[in-house]
Design goal:
Alpha-Beta Plaits; Arc Repressor Mutant, subunit A; alpha+beta; elongated; 2 domains; 4-stranded antiparallel beta sheet
Length: 154
């Protein structure tokens, strides 16, 4: 961990990971610091890149995106241009929630959220599998989400 975090910064980050909507007053009460001090610390944590952004975590069932596929992708070419081109294209597709470049048996793991298996099939045929650098795709359908959106332990 970066040595610039003190115990108060860690407490603030833990609180924000649990609920990013906490107001300065509540955070300051929980870390036993003034609101101005907490505000200054949060500003520095943002500037230093510890806090990248704030998001709302939605219920996939309620928004109709309850079909989650974990997709392994192996590329046929491993040049910098091919890898970068693949990554840039993936960033354009809102269905892809997460893209990880890996070492090992496959090159990338994608988390893809769509309404149903038919939509996933269309995604595969119309977008992913037509990319010239894609050699192999293997899909794992998520049956149940047991744990997600967990905060980083600090």
């Amino acid at each position: 961990m970066n040595g610039t975090l003190d115990p108060t910064d860690i407490k603030i980050l833990n609180l924000l990971q649990q609920d990013a909507r906490l107001n300065l007053q509540k955070i300051s009460e929980r870390v036993h610091k003034s609101t101005s001090s907490v505000n200054e610390r949060i500003s520095k944590l943002k500037e230093q890149g510890f806090i990248k952004r704030y998001v709302a975590i939605l219920d996939p069932e309620k928004i109709g995106k309850h079909f989650l596929a974990i997709t392994q992708v192996t590329l046929s070419v491993h040049t910098r241009a091919a890898l970068t081109g693949f990554e840039e294209k993936i960033k354009e597709w809102p269905e892809v929630l997460l893209c990880l470049h890996l070492s090992g048996a496959c090159d990338f793991i994608l988390h893809i959220a769509v309404p149903d298996s038919s939509s996933y099939h269309d995604f595969l045929l119309d977008r992913l599998c037509i990319m010239e650098q894609v050699a192999n795709v293997q899909t794992f359908i998520v049956l149940k989400e047991c744990k997600s959106n967990s905060p980083y332990p600090l």
